[in-house]
Design a protein that fits this description.
Helix content: 10-25%
Largest sheet: 6 strands, antiparallel
Structural class: alpha+beta
Radius of gyration: 28 Å
Strand content: 25-35%
Shape: elongated
Number of strands: 19
Number of domains: 2
Order of helices and strands: HEEEEEEEEEEEEEEEHEEEEH
Distance between the termini: 20 Å
Oligomer: single chain
Length: 279
């Protein structure tokens, strides 16, 4: 009976974590460049139960032999194996601000192992000088003319150098080149990940970092990688609010079902201890 407690409790904990993830997605439905998280739920290894009995052979010494009969398999519960962001294109919203930039996915190679396409991201530099990546192109110019993210991180060019401009009256071409008048000032640093679910992890405030703090290769170097940059636009969140709400209700019902099972086990154990134990 105690196995049933653990199985039901694991189901409740799993659905609680899934609900928290879905709630976070819903709360960021209007966050620029946000990528919705998704969970992968797996079952613990099943146990094969057998009934052990004994049979006495009518010999002079009354030989006893063990007898096994198979009962069946028993599930030991479920768990959240991993949580990964879904790197699909969000909707584009026009702002008409020169400092607002958006990446448009065109032809990104499909990863043979996962069956999902890769991702392109802006390259930025955090406060400690480390490389981070983002899809939030809501940039501004600081007091020294450097192009920065909303949290003050520097936007980098294709050589991982900071981008300094004279004013916000600049033009960004579709291939990422920044022009002031007819003079090329820099080219946006765009990284490409062929397996973002495994290579990238969220680092807060719309930023991602590469596992083991490695560096993504340049998206310009990929022969099969095709994307464009749109000035005066921002990429919205890719959260599907209707689907997320439906999944939240489903997760809640699953949590409630596991809770009912746990209560039933508790009543059965209470009866076994307080009533059957009196006999």
């Amino acid at each position: 009976m105690l196995r049933g407690f653990y199985t039901a409790a694991s189901g409740m904990l799993t659905q609680q974590r899934r609900t928290e993830m879905l709630t976070n997605n819903m709360s960021n439905a209007n966050t620029t460049g946000f990528k919705a998280d998704q969970t992968s739920i797996r079952s613990f290894p099943e146990m094969l139960l057998s009934n052990i009995d004994s049979k006495t052979i009518p010999t002079e010494n009354k030989l006893s032999m063990s007898k096994f009969s198979q009962v069946g398999s028993l599930s030991t519960g479920v768990y959240v194996q991993e949580t990964n962001p879904l790197f699909t294109q969000g909707t584009l919203e026009e702002t008409q601000l020169n400092t607002d930039l958006a990446l448009v996915d065109e032809n990104l190679p499909i990863n043979e192992g996962t069956g999902r396409q890769g991702a392109v991201l802006f390259t930025v530099q955090d406060g400690d000088g480390g490389l981070r990546y983002t899809r939030n192109g809501s940039f501004t110019l600081d007091g020294q003319g450097y192009l920065t993210t909303p949290n003050g991180y520097y936007v980098l060019d294709e050589n991982n150098e900071r981008i300094q401009l004279d004013s916000d009256q600049f033009t960004v071409t579709e291939n990422g080149v920044i022009l002031e008048g007819n003079v090329q000032k820099a080219r946006l640093g765009i990284g490409f990940s062929d397996n973002p679910s495994a290579q990238l992890m969220k680092d807060g405030e719309g930023l991602y970092k590469v596992v083991n703090d490695d560096e993504l290769p340049s998206a310009y170097a990929g022969a099969e990688v095709s994307f464009s940059t749109k000035q005066g636009f921002l990429e919205g969140s890719n959260v599907d609010q209707s689907r997320t709400m439906t999944e939240m209700m489903s997760s809640y019902r699953s949590f409630e079902a596991s809770q009912k099972v746990l209560q039933a086990y508790d009543k059965s154990l209470d009866k076994a201890v307080n009533e059957v134990g009196k006999l």
